[in-house]
Amino acid sequence: MDYSKYESYGFDSFSAFNMSTGWKERSYKVHWHSYGEILLVGPGETNIYKVNQNTYDLVEGDIVLVWPMEMHAIIDADREKALVIQFSNAFMNTLFDLQRIMHFYRNLHVICINSHRELVTQLTTIIYKMREIFFSDSADRELKCCMLLMQFMLALDEHREEFAPELDAGGRTGYTDDVMRRMIMVTDYIKNNLTADDLSQSAMAELAGISKDYFSRIFKNVTGLNYSKWLNMIRLEKATGLLAQNDLTLTEIAMLSGFQSIPSFNRVFRDEKGMAPGEYRALLTK
Question: Which of 145, 169, 193 is the C-terminal boundary of a domain?
């Protein structure tokens, strides 16, 4: 599937936290992005959301979790009073515990107020604190909201026993903290060494101290992508950030992002973004 036509650029990639509300339209097209979202469902008789292949008919007060890189849409729902929180995947990757929580709940997309009232009440209180701070004139509002986001994730994790049966039933494969640390170590290494001579799957499996086949299975389960696809996405993430720097040529950006040639850079960029790197750079300068 060509995901490029669904991608949304609505979130400032240099921010760790964003919040929005007050949208008049009741729907939003299928899309995906590298940041995650938390949605507090608004009032009204109809609130229909879709995450990946599942459609949810929700009520006011329910919470929707959309993890980074997941396809999602608002089919028909109140968007004027609903709250949307957007959080950077880079921020989530800063702490192992945040990555562990995100991994554990990867298959959880809805927390219903009628079945998890205590938890939803606790999480909603945190969300309202975020709203109060975010829409204030506080100079350190992003920092305070990120601290509340960590509190939100911690509260969710403290109720993990409520969700373990349904997550396990949904086919989730659990990994030990040791295995997760190895995978995080590898992904961190890749992100910080995109120009390294050997970033092959075999080399990364060796770095993790596990077999190539096991590494491949874990990687797909944890990231939702096969290794080569994920590596290209990380390179593109680096490249799109560099494209905002007008002092760098496209060749320099390709090399700094780990692409071996301009043709491969152009091909991968066009496949994912639906346009050439130069066209994307032109959009940034409009």
Answer: 169
CATH number of the structural domain spanning residue 204: 1.10.10.60
DSSP β-ladder status, 110-111 and 63-66: antiparallel
Q: Where among 148, 169, 190 does a domain terminate?
A: 169
Q: Domain check: are 148 and 194 in the same one?
A: no
Q: pLDDT tens digit string along 204-261?
A: 999 999 999 999 988 887 766 789 988 988 898 788 878 877 789 999 999 999 998 9
What residue numbers bound the domain in which 280 lies? 177-284
pLDDT(194) > 80: yes
* pLDDT tens per residue, range 145-191: 999 999 999 999 999 888 876 665 444 445 676 787 788 788 888 98
Q: Do 188 and 220 belong together in one domain?
A: yes
> Measured between alpha carbons, how far is 121 from 178 in angstroms, rounded to an integer?
33
Do 162 and 116 meet the contact criterion of CB atoms below 8 Å apart?
A: yes
Averaged confidence pLDDT in the chain: 85
Buried b / exposed e across 46-72, counting CB within 10 Å, b at 16+? ebebbbeeeebebeebbbbbbbbbbeb
- What secondary structure letter does DSSP report for 6? G
- Is 152 in contact with 127 (CB distance < 8 Å)? yes
